[in-house]
Design goal:
With about 375 residues, this protein is an alpha/beta fold. Helix content is about 45%, strand content about 20%.
């Protein structure tokens, strides 16, 4: 496989790079729209591509439950199944160990689930997580990890999760055989930088093609995450992609970029779009508010997305008031386009040596709006 990462520019800790995959190049920093069940909710693949997406994300746990990873394999793989020609990253299902904690039993062997759909059993071992992702045929697969909740755990449990994550990563690496797919490791450790360092040291020694920071945005204050990110990112190899999983708000993405992170994903653009909240360069807008009822301006002036080029705030307000499904689609599309544009602008600022000023300017506008 022709997988590679080239660091093209730096500005402070912020980085601009190029990831090469079988299904195409990815310019970083990059935001990956989330297509958990083989679809970015409410949007066609063409819409997502036209919005500027270079890579999307799918989920091992959900796709294994339905329609089934073997069915997707037999129908030509996830790219063909969902008609997405570009790169795909698949999560390992490790986050469901966290999010479905009441339905999961974790041992050193793996995680035993009860399906959130019908209660049927599903055992997710490191080997099974790799097999599912190899069947899906994603360009980037993730190791199975344990993501502890920072609100409902103890230091001993976080340490046990780190030990298990290291052990599972080694098993994933040993079981992975697909040559047109690469496997990224995931560093855990909560807000304990020493535990993070221990985890990173062990995983870096295994020489994975890329590394992720997991276990953020799981209950800690955003300020605590922002404070921890620079030291955590610095633990990862300079010459390999760095991925911050499941984060988050626009200000979180820029904090990650400022810390040296290359890749991001989150459901926030589409989830908020379905609930009538639009992200803009001047802060969020709630389209259900009555003040938009007669507003003929676009959601965001200067935005080139299909929603802003063709429809007014008044029309969006009407769609949400009437509970028409087009409203969530149009606003999800705008939000995805905004996130992708934010990353392109951050990349340009890095290459031009002005990222700090760009970052400060964004925060000043958003803070004024709030």
């Amino acid at each position: 496989m022709a997988f590679a990462f080239q660091l093209q520019a730096t500005n402070g800790a912020a980085r601009a790079g190029l990831v090469t995959t079988t299904h195409g190049p990815i310019e970083t920093p990059v935001f990956m729209p989330v297509g958990t069940q083989g679809t970015v909710k409410g949007l066609t693949p063409e819409m997502v591509r036209d919005a500027g997406a270079q890579i999307i994300l799918g989920n091992t746990y959900h796709l294994a439950l339905r329609p089934g990873d073997e069915l997707i394999r037999d129908l030509g793989g996830l790219h063909k199944f969902m008609n997405w020609p570009g790169p795909i990253l698949t999560d390992s299902g490790g986050f469901q160990v966290f999010s479905l904690a009441t339905q999961v039993k974790i041992t050193d062997e793996g995680a035993k689930f009860r399906s959130h759909i019908d209660g049927s059993p599903l055992e997710l071992t490191p080997e099974r997580a790799v097999e599912i992702q190899q069947n899906l045929g994603s360009d980037i697969a993730m190791v199975l990890d344990e993501c502890p909740s920072l609100k409902e755990t103890t230091p001993a449990k976080v340490r046990a999760a780190v030990d298990r994550t290291i052990h599972w990563a080694a098993r994933c690496k040993a079981h992975h055989t697909r040559t047109d797919q690469v496997l990224f490791a995931i560093v855990q450790g909560g807000l304990d930088i020493n535990l993070r360092a221990t985890c990173a040291t062990e995983l870096v020694a295994m020489d994975f093609p890329g590394y992720a920071l997991g276990g953020f945005s799981v209950g800690e204050a955003p300020e605590a995450m922002h404070a921890a990110l620079p030291a955590c990112a610095a633990l990862l190899p300079e010459g390999k992609p760095r991925y911050l999983m499941g984060v988050g708000r626009p200000q979180d993405l820029l904090a990650g970029v400022a810390s040296g992170i290359d890749m991001f994903d989150c459901v926030m653009p589409t989830r908020n779009g379905r609930n009538a909240l639009a992200f803009t360069a001047d802060g969020p807008i709630r389209l259900r508010n009555a003040k938009h009822r007669r507003d003929s301006t676009p959601v965001e002036s200067g935005c080139g997305c299909y929603c802003c080029a063709n429809y007014s705030r008044a029309y969006l307000h009407h769609l949400f008031s009437a509970e028409e499904m087009l409203g969530p689609t149009l606003l999800s599309l705008h939000n995805v386009a905004f996130y992708l544009r934010l990353m392109r602008e951050a990349r340009q600022a890095i290459t031009e040596g002005r990222f700090e000023a760009f970052h400060a300017g964004c925060l000043a506008r958003w803070n004024t709006a709030s």
